[in-house]
Amino acid sequence: MCNSKYKRVMLKLSGEALSGENGYGIDFDFTKKIAQQIKKLVDMDIRVGAVVGGGNIWRGRNGEDMDRTTADYMGMLATCINALALQDSLENLGVNTRVQTAIEMREVAEPFIRRRAMRHLEKGRVVIFAAGTGNPYFSTDTAASLRAAEIEADVILLAKKVDGVYDKDPHKCTDAKKFKKLSYIEVLEKGLQVMDSTATSLCMDNNIPILVFGLDDPENITRAAIGEDIGTLVCKE
Ligand code: UDP
Q1: 147 and 156 in contact (C-beta within 8 Å)?
Q2: Domains in the chain, number
Q3: CA-nearest residue, atom 13 of ligand 1
Q4: Angle at which helices 140-150 and 114-122 pack, to 10 degrees?
Q5: Which domain holds residue 85?
Q6: 139 is in an annotated binding site
Q7: Is the pTM of this model over 0.90?
Q8: What tens digit of pLDDT does each residue of 155-177 get?
Q9: What is the number of H-type helices and E-type strands within the chain?
Q10: Residue 182 maps to which CATH number?
């Protein structure tokens, strides 16, 4: 037990996060490091929901001249592959988990049922929400915002390649300034690279804070959850 700032968190991992340095596929060594951090949260009695992206396998049309909705369904299926990989890494560490999918595939995982998800969380199981929102034209960031609202998460822990939100691309501009705190409106008005606007608006309407931090050091997951001063916090004001 510990006096962590947040009691129930929604961890959003992009698909890229699971690919480690490769940018494609799944790096199981890195996935294990993420799983170890999630285990720490569970051991501290923090309830954890997780949404994983799919960009390490498939994103949007992936540069192909194909039907958008078909491409999006491929992306949603990619998130299921990642969810199973994360589930496997967690269960190898003895963490109880459930994967719930927004598109039914009962032989593989439970369908998303909110009440069931809540019960799993109460029992200390990590619930991994897969297949995004189940709808094309959305993103897994929006899925994370939606599920965060549904499971009444205190915060969305948004793990990124960059260690917070900057006014310019820090990889390109040496004078890029990192924000400590931002309001949802500032993010939307300045078009800052946090989440897409649908996801940000959903958080704003439901008053869910978003803590953006870097996954270069997986221990940041624990630091973020216990309320250490890292990354950028996006909230009401
Ligand atoms: N996707 C979708 N609906 C959703 C979530 C995801 O259509 O609710 C598709 C979309 O094509 C997206 C892909 O799945 O590009 C992978 O998700 P995302 O790009 O959010 O993954 P990440 O960038 O977090 O790895």
Answers
A1: no
A2: 1
A3: 75
A4: 70
A5: 8-235
A6: yes
A7: yes
A8: 999 999 899 999 999 989 999 99
A9: 8, 11
A10: 3.40.1160.10
pLDDT tens-place string over residues 14-55 = 999 999 888 899 999 999 999 999 999 999 999 999 999 999
Assess if residue 132 is contained within a domain. yes
Q: Is the CB of 15 under 6 A from ligand 1?
A: yes
Q: Which two tokens stand for residue 55?
A: 């960009």
Query: Which ligand 1 atom is nearest residue 75's CA?
Result: 14
Alpha carbon distance 219, 229 (integer Å) = 13
Is residue 108 a contact partner of residue 100, using CB atoms and an 8 Å limit? no
Specify if 3 maps to a domain: no
Ligand 1: does its nearest atom lie under 6 Å from the Cβ of 196?
no
CA of 53 to the centre of ligand 1 (A): 6
60 CB near ligand 1 (under 6 Å): yes
Q: Is residue 38 part of a domain?
A: yes
